Each structure stands twice: as structure tokens, then as C-alpha cells.
């Protein structure tokens, strides 16, 4: 049994190291859920802002369309006004030319007589008065026509000025609306970019959450399996302890009142729980049913002897081992941990019988 001790201790040390190192997690499931909720709220907020901004953009587009109609109507009025002004300007020029020609006709006749001679050439007084009245009416009518035409022309000039001013104001208003629309569109584009990033972040968090849920499920399954194994081991240990207690009581009763020989020995430990070991000793003893057993050198201690081992209790010398030679014994334990705890000791045992 001795040659297995070093390997057993190394294996136990590795088990202790592995079981004490816990998993390293970037974020717990609760933290990931919180991150997911916060990111979803951010996405909802951005969506709300995008919708509100798009509504403003649509409103601006409608205002631009209405303004375009106003600009088109204003340009049409300006074109009409320019057409009317051109016609009136032409008519004024023609009237001026006509007036000049008419005045010249009134001032001179074919024999170079002036207007007065034309009036005085009347045949009678009534003819004279008639000619004077006619000339006055004609002159007043020409003057009134010229005045009305000039007034109308001036009104059209004023209207055209107002239309030009209105056009400049409408153009500025359209430019402002175009700038506002462009600014709003930039805001929408930026929010869409932020939304895309948040959605990507949400997808990453969801992926991590799934991985964390899987990891926690695996840990819970391992914990449940470990608890089950520990419960089974505890039950087995309790059963072995009960068996050991009963056997120890029987051995104590068998040894009661009997003298014994003492022997100094080196005591190591072994267990049937070690891989590759049989549950049966060299004498055929079942080490599971009778765990209080030691391996001895039959030349020093006879097999099937009843022995008292300090720190262990009464035991049967029911096994042997290749490394058990001379004053060396190997005490049996149900578990490897008990073997490690026992270690190697120098003790004095008592051979009861």
C-alpha cells in the first residue's frame, strides 16, 4: 500500500485547488437584465424622439410646399404686373407723342396761322363759342387721359415694388425653412445612428444573458449533482461509521481484560476508495463491511490478530502489502481524506491476541 501514498496526496491537492477556484464572470444575470432594461428604455426614448422630430420635419415640408405655392403665385403676379406696366408705358409714350403732335396741329395751320386764328375764323358767335368749347373739351379729355394713365402706371409700379419685396421675404422664409428642415434631418440621422448602436448593444446584452443563463443552469446542475453526491457520501459515511462503531464495540468486547504484547511500528494508511484497490484483504476480509483492519507483516504480527492502534482503535490484522515489511503497518480507512489526515506516524501498538 505504501507506494500509492505520494500519488494519493498529489491527487488530493489537485482536487482541493480545482474546487476552490470559482468561475470568472464579466456580469451577473441580474446585472445583464438591468443593462437590458436600461438599453431598451434608451431605445424607446430614441424612437419617441425620432417620431417627434419626423413629425416636425413633415410639418416643415408642408410649410415649404405652401410657401412654394405662394412664391409661384407671387411670381405670376409679378409677371402680369410687368406685362401691364410695359403696355401702360408704351401707351404713355404714344399719348405723349400724340399730345405733342396735337399741340403742333393746334398751334399751326397750313398757312401758319395759330390756334387763335383758327378760333377767330368762326362764321358766327355761336360757331366761335362752339369751337372754343370743343377745343377745351378735347384738351381736358387728353389731359385727363394722360393723368389717369400716369396714375394707373404709378399704382402698378407701387404694386410691383410690393410684389418684389414680398418675393424677397418669401425667398428668405423658404431659405430659413430649408435650413430648419436640414437641421431636423441631421438630428433624425444622428438619432437613427444612436438607435442602431443601442440595438446592437441590446443584441450583445441578450446574447450574454443567454450565455449567463446557460452558465447558471450548468452551475445549478453541478451544485445539485454535488449536493446529491455529498448526501450519498454522507449517508455512506454514516453507514460506514455505524458499521465501524459496531465492529469497534465487538473488538473492544473481545479484547476486554486480555493482556497484550507491545510493538513499535511505523503506521501509514490506505483506503479501498483508492482507484484500483480491492475491497477484500489478504485474509479474505471484506474491508467495506469490516473497515477496522490493518495490513501487517505476518512475520511480525500474525494475521487475524486483534490489535490496539493508538489514535485508531481496535483492528484486525487482516491484510498484507508489498511495502509492508518488518515493523510497518498500514491502517485502513473508508475514505482517502482520512488517509491523508492520518499521514505517517511512529506509534506503539498492542497485540491483544
Describe this structure in words.
Mean pLDDT is 77; it is low at 1-25 and 109-113. Strand 3 (306-309) and strand 4 form a beta hairpin. The chain has a six-stranded mixed beta barrel with strand order 1-5-2-4-3-6. Helices cover 68% and strands 11% of the residues. Helix 2 packs antiparallel against helix 4. It is rod-shaped, with a radius of gyration of 62 Å. The protein is of the alpha/beta class. The protein folds into two domains: 29-207, Helix Hairpins, CATH 1.10.287; 257-351, Barwin-like endoglucanases, CATH 2.40.40.10. The protein has helices at residues 5-20, 29-107, 115-120, 125-255, 336-342; strands spanning 261-271, 293-295, 306-309, 313-319, 328-333, 345-351.
Give the SSE map.
Elements: H1 5-20, H2 29-107, H3 115-120, H4 125-255, E1 261-271, E2 293-295, E3 306-309, E4 313-319, E5 328-333, H5 336-342, E6 345-351
Parallel strand pairs: 1-5, 2-4
Antiparallel strand pairs: 1-6, 2-5, 3-4, 3-6
Helix pairs in contact: 2-4
Summarize the structure.
The protein has helices at 5-20, 29-107, 115-120, 125-255, 336-342; strands at 261-271, 293-295, 306-309, 313-319, 328-333, 345-351. The protein has 353 residues and is α/β, with parallel strands linked by helices.
